[in-house]
Specification:
heterodimer; A: mainly alpha; 2 helices; 1% strand; B: mainly alpha; 9 helices
């Protein structure tokens, strides 16, 4: 362990090596490290943003789904109500129509009955008159008893 | 251990001679340095291996930096990024000026990688490179030390570099006047009687920081190298006998254990050297 001029030579080498590192080695590597740190930070931020967007989208889709379901349920309820109403109306209309038909038929029957009665009455009256005529031909003048005959005819 | 084995036949170095031989640098004087301080000499082996390790470390990182991508990183890029990020985090925690960090960050990274690689030279078998060098150079007594951080010149050179950086930032941040004012008024306060005491304290602080910074790394690596040598000596003494074989087994066991433990020391010392660099530079930013 003797001291000699190696000390100064080593001192010079020391600074040359340090200068080389400072000039050619340190800056590019530090730059790359900083760039990578930035890339990673950006990537993390983007991922965070993506996650947030996904959350929003999920929320929106859930809302849309719920809205759709509500609308569909409302439509079904309306349709059912409408159907019930239509049925009710149809029932009422049918009943009215039926009543009308029945009433018409009844009226016709009544008319027919009246007409038939009228006819029958006439025929009976004629028959009676004919009968009476045959009986009375022998003893009664039709003309002389016309008023009696009319009275009978009236009572039939 | 073949050197020791061969030499046992010819001139049989003692254990002491073996270790001393291993602790002598290959320098420009052509022989072992005699004086404790001699600035006319440069250690060739320390320079070769430290520059080699520095260039290797920076070349690998430079290749990564050239093809660096902010997308998915490759394994090599990820490895370099881990180290760089670690250093950068430490720098951010200690040096609060972003402007200064543009130099201090790379400086700390360089220190960490460089010291780590230089320390790692310790993992090579202690005799491998010296033996190779002795064979290539043809001189069987050629000196070679392969761990630059086990040379006090290297570690003190680096810690002096850190001292210069600290002085630079002291002046840059506080201004020359502000710094001189601080030299004379901190830590005890502004009073003419206290000026010399303060100044002495400041000088001692700078010296102590710098020397302990360099000495700490040197001491750890030097001691680690010594222990590898002692383990090598144990294996060198093996013979075909019960004791001899147990020495061999002891070498393998102790060598493995120490090498594994040394991985921790190597990394830890590189980390400590880097952290202290940051701490000292950080301190030079703070006014007392």
């Amino acid at each position: 362990m003797n001291l000699n001029a190696t000390l100064f030579a080593q001192l010079v080498v020391f600074f040359i090596l340090a200068w080389v590192t400072m000039r050619f080695i340190w800056p590019p590597i530090v730059k790359a490290l900083d760039e990578r740190a930035k890339k990673i930070a950006d990537g993390l931020a983007a991922a965070e943003r993506g996650k947030h967007d996904l959350e929003l989208a999920t929320k929106r889709s859930t809302d849309a789904l719920r809205e759709g379901k509500e609308k569909a349920a409302e439509l079904i309820v309306n349709a059912e109500k409408r159907a019930a109403q239509v049925i009710e109306e149809a029932k009422v209309a049918a009943k009215a129509e039926a009543d009308r038909i029945v009433a018409g038929a009844k009226a016709e029957i009544d008319q027919e009955a009246v007409r038939t009665k009228e006819q029958l009455r006439g025929q009976v009256a004629a028959l009676v008159v004919a009968g009476a005529e045959k009986i009375l031909r022998r003893e009664i003048n039709a003309q002389a008893h016309a008023d009696i005959l009319a009275t009978i005819k009236q009572d039939l | 251990m073949s050197t020791a084995g061969q030499e046992a036949v010819t001139n049989a170095p003692t254990a002491g001679e073996y270790i001393v031989h291993h602790l002598v640098q290959w320098n420009t004087s052509g022989h072992a340095q005699k004086d404790v301080i001699d600035f006319g000499i440069i250690n060739i082996d320390t320079m070769i291996f430290s520059i080699l390790m520095g260039v290797l470390g920076l070349f690998v990182m430079w290749r990564v930096a050239r093809s660096v991508t902010s997308g998915v990183p490759g394994r090599m890029q990820a490895a370099v990024e881990i180290v760089l990020e670690m250093v950068n985090d430490q720098a951010k925690g200690i040096v609060h000026s972003a402007e200064s960090r543009r130099f201090v960050g790379p400086l700390a990274l360089t220190v960490f990688i460089w010291v780590f690689l230089m320390n790692c030279m310790d993992f090579l078998p202690v005799d491998l490179l010296p033996l190779l060098w002795q064979t290539i150079s043809g001189d069987h007594h050629a000196y070679l030390r392969v761990v630059p951080t086990a040379d006090l010149n290297a570690t003190l050179g680096m810690s002096t570099g850190v001292l210069l950086v600290c002085l630079y930032y002291n002046i840059k941040i506080k201004g020359l006047g502000g710094w001189v004012h601080e030299l004379f008024t901190a830590p005890f306060g502004s009073h003419p009687l206290l000026y010399p005491v303060n100044f002495a304290m400041q000088i001692i602080e700078f010296l102590a920081k710098t020397i302990s910074h360099g000495m700490r790394l040197f001491g750890n690596m030097y001691a680690g190298e010594l222990i590898f040598m002692l383990i090598a000596l144990m294996g060198a003494a093996w013979t075909v006998s019960a004791t001899g074989v147990s020495l061999f087994v002891g070498h393998v066991l102790a060598g493995s254990a120490w090498a594994i433990f040394h991985i921790l020391i190597v990394t830890l010392q590189a980390f400590i050297f880097m952290m202290l660099t940051l701490v000292y530079v950080g301190q030079s930013h703070e006014a007392h």
